[in-house]
Amino acid sequence: MRFAVIIPTYNPGEPLEHSLEELAPWVQKRKGRILIVDNASQDGCVEKLRPDYPDITLLKNESNLGFSKAVNAGIRKAEKAEVIVLLNQDCRLATAFADPLIEFFENAPKDIGIAGGQLFNPDGSLQPCCGPFPTLWSTLWRMVLPKRHRKYYINSDRGLPCRVDWVTGAFLAFPRRVWKELGGLDENFFMYYEDVDFSLRALQRGYRTFLLPQVKAIHLNPHAQRTGEEVPERLQLEIRKSQMLYFFKHRPRWEYWAIRQLNAIYMGAKAMRKHNQDKRGGIAIAVFFTYLCNFALTFLYKYVKM
Is 218 in the same domain as 299? Predict the structure, then answer.
């Protein structure tokens, strides 16, 4: 079965180099193809690797177009691939365990739409990689959980292949025909939630999503394990924007309204902390920032193309 590995990159650095050392020989052995779609990186890493991997197809965007647009561009280029494998730039596929991923689709029923492998941290510990479809209620009660579990299943340790709601876009695979039927990844998602959205739209078309724990990869820098200080403000805004877009598309309007208010409150409180205001007048400042953020979020949806 012909397949292609799509790797979107943005200033990937050494993790991409280490990933390709093991990935490229396995893909060549299986007669697959690797496509790197670079979102205007400035670190020179991709150009540095080109001489060592002449068989890899490189697509370069003039600006950072985000994850979904990069993936779709790569898949359109991989015209002959029957199965598409998405891999983050900081993921190292354990190729000794990779063959079952392709074999799974070779023998899968037609209603298998998406499959993902089990992710691990560099120290060998299990990393959450699949979760339930978000609702307002699940989003609220999961706020009491550690950050690494707020979006994912609390218990991700699955011994056998099993059905799940969605698997992370850091490492997932699907038949090209499913991608085509769904119209690709929704490019309105710049980063995050595009995998949840893709899985839900696949389910609505009758396709199931599976986790394959026998297929393994190491994910070096998952967002769910980073602290707030380690996440750039632009990225935090994109994550919240993607969350609201998901609720706007798939949940009742009152849930979308509520999640928008929660995001506005969070952003307002964060802005207040950033300006290091004293307690006097703190409530008024918080309210002001909340309304200001709410207005900004409304503007994004009304006047800015998502």
Answer: no
